[in-house]
């Protein structure tokens, strides 16, 4: 991004001298924003669940964002698996092992291509169902949970 300013200079001499000049300032983008996972809540079936596609965004410009890399943190590594999609801008999150119906925290860390990262905890409502047709009973987390299922 470039900015141009015109500057006029004058002195206060009885015979004033004046001059003009142009100052051009170019601002370069830096890697000051970590990528973030947009979704905060998901729903999945506890049997043969389909992967959930999570979106990753970064406010930095090209060269400081995608391709992204993701890792599971803590106990989430034992319960979930992650892979990046083909564009390296989305995360496929999949339940690794059957869980009882309930709400679980999934701890993730997402990196940009310069290894700047941000941690995100996703609330996963695991429902007693099979496949990608998620059916949760009324007592589970809010009925307006967004879920994003993909097929293999």
Task: Describe the overall structure.
There is one protein chain. This protein has 152 residues and is an all-beta fold. It has one helix and ten strands; from the N terminus they run E-E-E-E-E-E-H-E-E-E-E.
Per DSSP, what share of the residues sits in E-state strands of 2 or more residues? over 45%
Share of helix among residues? under 10%
Oligomer: single chain
Helix-strand sequence: EEEEEEHEEEE
Q: Low-confidence spans: pLDDT under 50, at least 5 residues? A: 140-152
Note the main sheet.
4 strands, antiparallel
Number of strands: 10
Q: Count of helices?
A: 1
Strand order of the largest sheet: 3-5-8-7
Terminal CA distance reads: 42 Å
Overall geometry = rod-shaped
Cα-based radius of gyration, to the nearest Å: 25 Å
Mean pLDDT reading: 86
Structural class: mainly beta
